[in-house]
Design a protein that fits this description.
- The protein contains 2 helices and 7 strands, in the order H-H-E-E-E-E-E-E-E.
- The chain is of the alpha+beta class.
- It has 2 domains: 44 residues; 80 residues, Immunoglobulin-like (Sandwich).
- The longest helix has 39 residues.
- It is elongated, with a radius of gyration of 40 Å.
């Protein structure tokens, strides 16, 4: 009976095969994950480079210098009226005709935007000549004005 009792508590022999297979499997899985990560990084770098190259394009032709310089004076409040104005200078060598300034007005009541064209005085400018524009508004109707 003593012999049978000893056999119950003896450790079974473990083979080295399953441990080797588990170690090799872990190495293969780790190598596959790292290779997939490297592949995704490489593909993302190529897509980013192609996007950056496509967004940077050379201009078709160089920009020309502006023909007129538009300056805005500070708004002047006179009683219940606001006067918005400024000057326009012809910086080109040619005569400019039919000039006007577009102003974007923001209404106080509903916050809506209204665009208005202001005719220049004089409407024709010779080279290096200046013209003035002005617009008279009710102060309670508009909150702000911006040259467009």
């Amino acid at each position: 009976m003593i012999d049978s009792h000893n056999e119950l508590f003896t450790e079974p022999r473990r083979s080295l095969g399953p441990k080797v297979v588990a170690g090799i499997s872990a190495l293969v899985i780790t190598a596959l994950v790292l290779a997939g990560y490297a592949l995704l990084r490489h593909r993302h770098a190529q897509q980013s480079a192609s996007t950056a190259l496509s967004s940077v394009s050379l201009p078709a032709e160089p920009r020309k210098p502006p023909k007129a310089l538009v300056m805005v004076d500070d708004a002047l409040l006179q009683g219940s009226k606001t006067i918005i104005g400024g000057t326009v200078r012809n910086t080109s060598t040619e005569k400019l005709e039919g000039l006007s300034v577009e102003v974007e007005l923001k209404r106080r009541k509903d916050g809506g935007v209204e665009k208005q064209l202001i005719v220049l005085n004089p409407s024709q400018l010779d080279p290096e000549q200046e013209g003035r524009y002005s617009l008279e508004l009710k102060a309670q109707d508009y909150g702000s004005a911006r040259r467009k």
